[in-house]
Amino acid sequence: MISATNLGKRVLTAEGALDILAGVNLEIKTGESVAIIGVSGSGKSTLLGLLAGLDLPTDGEVWLSGERLTALDEDGRARVRAGAVGFVFQSFQLLPGLTAIENVMLPLELAGAPDSEGAARALLERVGLAERLTHYPRALSGGEQQRVAIARAFALRPAILFADEPTGNLDSATGARVIDLLFELNTERRTTLVLVTHDDELASRCARRIYLHGGRIVNGAG
Amino acid sequence: MRLIRNLKLALRLLARDWRAGELKLFVAALVIAVGAVTAVGFFNDRMLRGMAYQSAEMLGADLALVSPQPVPPEWLDEALKQGLTSSEALEFASVVVKGERLQLSSVRAVGAHYPPRGVLRTAAALYAPDAVADGIPAPGTAWVEARVLHALAAAVGDRIEIGSAELAVARVLTYEPGRGGNFFALAPRVLIHRADVARTEVIQPGSRVTYGYAFAGADEAVARYQRWLKTRLGQNHQLVGAREGNASVARAIERVDRFVGLTSLLAVILAGVAIAMGARRYSHRHYDMSAMLRCLGASQRDIVQLYLPQLLALALGASLVGVALGWAAQETIHYLMRDFFPLKLPAPGAAPALFGVATGLITLAGFALAPILRLKAVPPLRVLRREAAPLPASSLAVYGSAAAAVMLLMWRYTASWTLTLGVLAGALAAAAALAAAAFGLLAVSKRLHRRVGTAWRFGFNNLWRRAHASVGQILAFGLTLMAMAVIALVRTDLLSTWQRQLPADTPNHFAFNILAADVPAVRRFFEANRIEAQALYPMVRGRLTTIAGVPVTQTVTKEERSDEALQRELNLSWAAHVPPDNTLVRGGWWTDGGGARVSVEEKLAKKFGIELDAELGFSIGGEEVKARVASIRKVQWDSFHPNFYMIFPPGMLEAYPATYLTSFYLSPEQKSLLTALVRAFPAVTVLETDQVLAQARTILGQVTFAVEFVLLFVLAAGFVVLYAALAATLDDRFHEGALLRTLGASRRQLRAGHLAEFATLGLLAGLLAAIGTELVAYTLYTRAFDLEYTVKWPVWLIAPLAGAALIGLAGYFGTRRVVRLSPMAVLREL
């Protein structure tokens, strides 16, 4: 499903070149749930961005759904992502100008899905927000916003879901409920899950854990 | 397929953005911009067409044809075919008789539809109030000018003879189109019906008769007919369109069009700046959306296909609303100003609406496209890293497209790339100089920093922190206020300053058409009544035909060819000595009193490139007269003394029929002597300069009001910029306000700070306006009008106060939201 070989990301800073990631090799199989764990600055989010094709590595290769992402331009990578990849972010990334249901409809509309509104409503009902359809993000609590984001992520029934610190901005009780929902949907829809977190408890719910330290995998690559 | 899907999604996104209030400021800017442009366009269109109509009224037609013989009947049939109204008139000179008295008159015999444009005005009796006449004189009757009645000692109802016909005087003719400006007509007018011409038996083979044909109709039909006619005209036909009818009016129309048009462009540019600011904000606000869409698999082309239609729909929608707003605005203002327009303006046409929409699209494309197209370059990585943003649009793209849009719109008014570039370069230079001055003012205000309270310091700080924006706004408002002040000065101060500076006994009357035989008697009249009169100058009518052997039609440009000095006959005079208020600038005066020489007025010489010693050819009474240029003279025209473009030595022109001309001063108590003068010398035409000045004042008032009207829209556009700039800084201000409030600042303190900021901005703009006004007015008064200059103190008071009040209040209200939200809500949203 996803594979990375000898992946590296180097940036230039005032003090010279800095390796954010180096020599990362990993393989994630269809239907697997994988947690990428590490402290702040360990390169977790950078790795997630590279695996999802949101950014290009300076070294190595990434394959996603049988496509070599590193050989494609930005539009090519977007084509691979379209419909196959879903995202959940720490900062929710809901568009403030759109209501809850419109945020969920957006990927469906972009893909030209037939009944985007019906599908979006059903998803929001599934995540327990039937009463919040027409609310703008600013009128929703953090937990509610993240549930909208999860509904949006699953809208196109993606084969892979990338989640970047999905509970990072939530208190622990709310975070736990959001995570329950995430894993329920993941199981229901047999999605491959790649989850970035610094929370060991959350990571322990994934089948496999990959530890990053200083931009390198310290164990768990497979 | 994908395109259609994207289009649908684009419209849905647009609707959502609209509902969420994301677009309102941007659209408001666009609506006001297009509204301003269209209001100006509609109004200009109406005024220009009104003016064109007015000149048509002066001519009495949209198109006039003068011929020494009747024209072929098919020419008139063609006019009918083109849907034009036409009327024929015959004009001839004849002596009108009553009893023992005679008066040489200019008889015009008219038919139905006369005049096709404009009106005749008549009165029931001498000196009775006049009114618009209904139709033309009935057969068997005549309408005559007052001079005829004076000369014949006749009254309305008396019978007069023209040739063999006897006609009853039915009305006193007080106004006739095409005659208003012609003070030099020797013979007074008698208007009769065409059916009576044969009865007079005046017209015999070889008689000098002029056939006049007047046409009126829709603009296109007139133009079509004019083209048709032009190919058929002979040497002795003279065709005059309403626009050419009065060369000076035509030039005035062109200048007003150009000037007012370019003024309205100031509104477009300001609106463009507001739109550019709005577009930047829009673009920034959509980075997240774009990144999310990219993350969800949208290609760059999808992004363009999603945003471009939104922009287009926005532009069209806002432009249409703007056009409606512009229409309503100009209707309202027209209604409020209805007393200012003695003439009913024609209804607004469709062209300004189309131009308004086009302006909306061009302005939007020029000022908004570059930043909005950057949305396609938003990296999807932004969903993970907030700081990931596209490189800003290149300066070349941003400023280049804006400059291209402005030049395109400017070209619409100048119709010349050279002029466009010239105006643009001049405007940029002036703007740079004023921007430097604005920066200087800002720097001076900075020094006051320590001497003001907290609130003011907070406000001042805001101004310097955004120094570039502040200078831009001071410049925009300063320029607008300056333009308004200059126009107001021209309207209220310029003419009265000029009049005040004239000596008290400056002649206020001109007397023309004094017959040679009457000259001694007129002199005696002036002496007997203690009237201060200038010398009586002889005057012979002649046309300048050649300069240094070359026909003038070949040596001058097309525009100069329409110059009155060439179109009409010139007044030629002769004198043994240099007239008192003339000074020789080149050459010498004749002392021997003989020889074929001529002295030419300086400005005319310059205009036509007439050099000293060049041989000029004149056509006087059908004869060619040649004369060498002996001197070039500078003439002080506003002395109100009789003055001439061409003066010959005595002995050259005496053989030609001449009349005499003088000017004199009458005090208000002496006014009654005018009637005595006219009664004593019926052929004499008297021109009262105070009346001419009053007319000039009215015209100046109308034109300056029109320009001020346009400037109001420029001012409105300035406010749009202010609000756009406010919106761009609003997030900062929210943040800042919330922080200050958590630190203990009260709402009142914050509000006072805002008021201080914007009142200072307005005050500085007003000061800049005063400086600019003083410079422009000084140049105008001393260079263009040779007037003594005094500092315009009121401007220094009114402009800064008005600026502070207007902009202070606008800014105060624009920022009121900043303190309305609770600091908690603000900080959480950030």
Automatic annotation (TrEMBL), chain B:
Its main location: membrane. It is found in: Cell membrane. The chain crosses the membrane at residues 21-43, 259-279, 311-329, 349-370, 391-411, 417-444, 471-490, 705-726, 758-781, 793-814. Pfam families: FtsX, MacB_PCD. Residues 263-370, 709-823 form the ABC3 transporter permease C-terminal domain. It is a multi-pass membrane protein. Residues 25-206 form the MacB-like periplasmic core domain. Keywords: Cell membrane, Membrane, Transmembrane, Transmembrane helix. The keyword Membrane applies. One of its GO terms (cellular component) is plasma membrane. This is ABC transporter permease. It comes from Candidatus Muproteobacteria bacterium RIFCSPHIGHO2_01_FULL_65_16.
